[in-house]
Amino acid sequence: MAKIEICFDGNGKFVTVGFDELPELLRHEHAFVWLDVDANEPEELEGLRSQFGLHRIDVENALSHEQRPKISLYDDMLYLEFYGLRLVDDEIQADDIGIFVGEQFIITVRRDGNPSLKALQERWSEEQGRSNGSASESEGAPQRLGSTAGTPARKPSAPLLLYAILDDLVDDYFPVVDWLGEEIEDLEGAVTEGNAQKPQLAIQRMRTKLLHLRRLLSPQQEVVNSLLRRDVPVIDEAIIPYFADVYDHLLRIHDWMESYRDHLSTIVDLQLSIQSNRLNTTMRTLTAWSIILMASTLIAGIYGMNFVHMPELNWRFGYPAALLAMAGLGGGLHVMFRKRGWW
Amino acid sequence: MAKIEICFDGNGKFVTVGFDELPELLRHEHAFVWLDVDANEPEELEGLRSQFGLHRIDVENALSHEQRPKISLYDDMLYLEFYGLRLVDDEIQADDIGIFVGEQFIITVRRDGNPSLKALQERWSEEQGRSNGSASESEGAPQRLGSTAGTPARKPSAPLLLYAILDDLVDDYFPVVDWLGEEIEDLEGAVTEGNAQKPQLAIQRMRTKLLHLRRLLSPQQEVVNSLLRRDVPVIDEAIIPYFADVYDHLLRIHDWMESYRDHLSTIVDLQLSIQSNRLNTTMRTLTAWSIILMASTLIAGIYGMNFVHMPELNWRFGYPAALLAMAGLGGGLHVMFRKRGWW
Amino acid sequence: MAKIEICFDGNGKFVTVGFDELPELLRHEHAFVWLDVDANEPEELEGLRSQFGLHRIDVENALSHEQRPKISLYDDMLYLEFYGLRLVDDEIQADDIGIFVGEQFIITVRRDGNPSLKALQERWSEEQGRSNGSASESEGAPQRLGSTAGTPARKPSAPLLLYAILDDLVDDYFPVVDWLGEEIEDLEGAVTEGNAQKPQLAIQRMRTKLLHLRRLLSPQQEVVNSLLRRDVPVIDEAIIPYFADVYDHLLRIHDWMESYRDHLSTIVDLQLSIQSNRLNTTMRTLTAWSIILMASTLIAGIYGMNFVHMPELNWRFGYPAALLAMAGLGGGLHVMFRKRGWW
Amino acid sequence: MAKIEICFDGNGKFVTVGFDELPELLRHEHAFVWLDVDANEPEELEGLRSQFGLHRIDVENALSHEQRPKISLYDDMLYLEFYGLRLVDDEIQADDIGIFVGEQFIITVRRDGNPSLKALQERWSEEQGRSNGSASESEGAPQRLGSTAGTPARKPSAPLLLYAILDDLVDDYFPVVDWLGEEIEDLEGAVTEGNAQKPQLAIQRMRTKLLHLRRLLSPQQEVVNSLLRRDVPVIDEAIIPYFADVYDHLLRIHDWMESYRDHLSTIVDLQLSIQSNRLNTTMRTLTAWSIILMASTLIAGIYGMNFVHMPELNWRFGYPAALLAMAGLGGGLHVMFRKRGWW
Amino acid sequence: MAKIEICFDGNGKFVTVGFDELPELLRHEHAFVWLDVDANEPEELEGLRSQFGLHRIDVENALSHEQRPKISLYDDMLYLEFYGLRLVDDEIQADDIGIFVGEQFIITVRRDGNPSLKALQERWSEEQGRSNGSASESEGAPQRLGSTAGTPARKPSAPLLLYAILDDLVDDYFPVVDWLGEEIEDLEGAVTEGNAQKPQLAIQRMRTKLLHLRRLLSPQQEVVNSLLRRDVPVIDEAIIPYFADVYDHLLRIHDWMESYRDHLSTIVDLQLSIQSNRLNTTMRTLTAWSIILMASTLIAGIYGMNFVHMPELNWRFGYPAALLAMAGLGGGLHVMFRKRGWW
Lengths: 343, 343, 343, 343, 343
Known about the structure:
5 copies of one chain form a homopentamer. Chain A is an alpha+beta fold. Chain A is built from 10 helices and 6 strands. Chain A is rod-shaped. The two termini of chain A are 71 Å apart. In chain A, 40% of the residues are buried.
């Protein structure tokens, strides 16, 4: 069920109206609504389409899964596709959200389970209760939203609310990115100390995760950037520093992702080098012990020959001498290999 | 044989005419035709060349195989080369299609076997039947084509039909791309579990496939992008969001292809690492068993020596003691290797 | 010796004149000449320099070897450096050619052995003979050169001749590129089936070839592209689609080259992986047989010990039992290794 | 506690005032202050915010950790985030610093421990003492700051001070970058000579360090570049060469970092190749000695056989002959392996 | 000691003046000087600074070591930093040179040992001698400098002299680049034939050399390119083709360097593949000989057992039969391994 998150009647009041009263309300120049539509019930958005003049293609995109982050700019409206990220049981979940922004409205389109904007909605419902109680009080979070620096503007502004939504979504990326960074460092530690079970599979899983995330996030920079550069009619210039801040956050996340990717590929090299080193160690063990044991066996073999004339065989201490020779040879080789740093 | 797919007489009727009646028909300002030419019969397109003022170079390109996706823009016309993709027996087939777009006509040039536009053609022939039956009925697919949002325009518009064609072609890419993604995940699974026959050859085949596909698809973005940016005379601005949507689809496919490529190269690394790991395991098996067996053989060799004075040989339990020594040594080494994690 | 390939007197006749008559001839507004100069006889080009107002630097470049493809644009002239490619005994030969283009002349500068433009020259000499015989006949190849679509212009046009030359040169690239592609596929087959002699050397040779070719060809795109974009005075707009076609051919060749390069690097990975696989197989053979043989030898060694009290030695069937034990152990190990997929 | 580093009263005097006198002082057109705020005491900067009209978002960024280097440009002000680097116990420490620049003020925001600007501050306090003593003396370091070439301007200029700060910060990068270069060369030496303990871990640590540093530094070029290109109101054109010099220094550092990265990846290849070479050497040792020892053991085994009819066993010199055969075989193989370059 | 390389008094004479006469001389509109300053004696350049209005920052850069190639453009002057390259004992030496260019002067700043411009200076001193002897004579090298094509201008022009200097410096790059190419081909040959001592170290040294060179040269393209694009006041348009030629030379060198880099990385792959191949060969030798020798030893071991009931031991030809069995087994295995292509 679509919900009306904010409904401002243009006379300084937050009001509660039904869907059928919306057209009436929006006739007032300063009225403003934020509608939150569930993408699982497409007929709702269809219903709003003609009311707000949404483009057919955007509506189709908003309702379908797995779109690419994008922005469509119109004369009096814009449409954004963005992603919310969250960690669910150590898996990264991406929820897509479609955002229509007009002069008097913002429509967010989400699947039901998507909790991305919960905090923002709570801030707003609190604000509405309070502001209706006493319209003069204006500090804290809503202040941060509903006003540019210094001049407190009462009406919720569409671009500022858009900023609040994007900021909220992007702020949710940081814990995910931090978690990724820790996972990668754990992985590096496990590879370095060699106590990982099948490190190559863990590396592979992490690389796949990063690839997936990068495919989601990298087009978003472009989306926010076009809010800064182009003459976007809905967004007035005083608000651009806010979007520039969101853009900077996205760039920082992008820097981190690139950094993770490079880090992972150094871990791949490291793992390869450690494997190769381990093989070297194994082979040296094999070589050294083979030589020691085969040399000793050769001595034993020599005195196992059945020649009639082998004077040593009759020596009193021939046997211990042979044992000594073996031990001496083995010990000597042992020392030699140690000197050459083989173990 | 070239077919006339759509023929609209400008008076709200879809009509059926012969080729020789075309010039007559097109004298009417709102008339419109869609001709579908078989590239295997070049003389047909040659025949249309002077009629529609097609550029000689474009005609040559449309008739030849293996062109690069491209766009040529003229004052009153444009020429596109595009690809259709489909899966035939788990092989990706690419069919090139040349598209001439003018104010009053669209000419598509294809090889005969190419089924790319079948669905679109069926939609249209259905629409023609219906619309001639009752001209007032206008919903469903043709509606989606023949009208911008809200204002139902009767005449089939060249750019909207071009959009429908490109959309149709690009929509056919998604099953191919999804199939590729599944193949790659199967490949990853097979490599991970080590039960692939010659995984390196499967990887190689997949990489070659991706290279081939990338060479086909990557120039297409550029082609569609130039429909958005340049002041293309045939395309009026209201339709640009439609092409922007096709462009977004191409970008998404491009993102996926890049992602696949990176994924494949992580699989190459994984396969290398697994191979190297397997070598390590083999060598450790060799080393451990060589040492155990050679050490036991050495003991046997020692008691096989023929020294006259070897007191152990005369011991009552010399033989079982020697066997015990071998077993003990072997068991001890076994435990030691296990402790060092060698198996 | 420089040759006069085309000499058109401006009155609809191809004429034959000496070098000293050229100034006289060119005084006629519609006269046109194509001079083909041998770079091995620098004084000829020097002689033409003041006649046609060529830039000193360009003349120096045209005469020297191993220049980079480039373009110099002047108010009434342009200078291009381009490459012709051909296969000589399975080696790629690149011949550089300098082209001066003015309103009334084209001067091509080549080394003597360079056969690049032979076909074009033959087409022209044929055309001259015929056109002087009957000036009204105009079809076939010269038509393709000497006229824009539809309007047959008698005078050979400098930009159209330039197009013909570039098209001729670029058309010669395709057999070379196709040959390369086949060579690479042969190489891949040989690597895959493992029956190549020293595949790493063949790969290396092919990579070096590609590097060399890429260094020659990649600047050429830029050269042709600047013919499209800049307001080149010598080239009028109607002819730009022709150069756009040459540019598309160069892009296609570039795509192929990139594709080959990526393909080769997948072959390098494949070869590495096959080598590593082969090593694995070798090591498993070694390990399995070592264990089988050493275990059997150990049994033989045990019964070769000289203990006085070894009851088995006196058994009636001790010897065959020992042989059986060896065979049984060997067979058992053999089965075990086979089960683990070692051979 | 925020400190007032420079306070110039506009009448040619450096004065000492309290925070509450600042508004009064700044009413004078030529007055100028440099305030140095501790980011650990956020309420101080908050206090300055309305006084100087700082943007709320910038203040938030200046107070928080781990921002990305960035620049915000306003009509009468700019805000920069930059990094200072220093070596602490062979670890690279990065301290972020926020810089607000207006016509009459510079505010630097740092954590307390950050020593980056100490030298600059000392130069200034010295200068203030001296200049107040005798206003006519003007040479040395302050000269370098407080004046453009030739015309000694008494008032400290905001952009020149900004230049001095950035120059100071960037100058501190060079020792860090030089130290990194030396570390990398040491690493290369250790890898080359093979006497490094776990070189792969050292390489990994260095690569991680570089990744970290690159993430910090690469956005700074962009920041300084935008001081050069855009019409930054606070910065007048005569000073741009100074910032261009800072930009050049950043480019040089960037070149070095790229160079280090490439160098490290060649070291990775080198290390892999050396490891592979070492494995080769080990395996050749194993192979050669295995063959020599096994061949000798075979001879011993042959004469250890118990056949009744073995004439050699009864030879007078059978035993030494067998030993000689072993030695000869061993020596012969030794020579052969040496000839094939195996050791 | 700074030297006056060219001093032209504006009346068609090359004159010799002292430093103190320079201001007097330069008052003449057509006068021109080329000063060559030694960077080891900074006070000289300091002295010229106010005379010619050089920027303080540029002077600092010109005097310091290891600057990045750069260009600073002013209204009536420009400052360049460039590199000269030469081979000294098979090591590449880079000498930096600072160049100030004004309407009436060029100042080159170099360290004393730098021989880069010697040839140019000699050409000039010769020219001065000759031209003063007979002012009408004007051919050969100076002609190439002091005149645009066709119109002999007597006064040495600053941009043409700058061109001559840059051309001279860049011409010196080609022998260095050629030498590098030969070294790389030698390296490839040595790696291919496997007769290199420690090829991985040679590769590493070459890669480091290329990295170093690339860091020096790649910014120079940008420097020369900005001479072509921007409206550089000192450089008039007729001369731009000359600088375009220098730029082309730099691009060619850049192409070669990129090509070398790619070539080197194919050599790294080749070397790895050859190493891996060699390991394979070694292991096959080991495996084959181990199996042959161990199998023979097993036979010897069997007949060395001490069973009482071993009928073969008493056979008349038991011993030769056993030897034959060994030889047969060994020979059979040998043939089998040869068939499998193991040696």
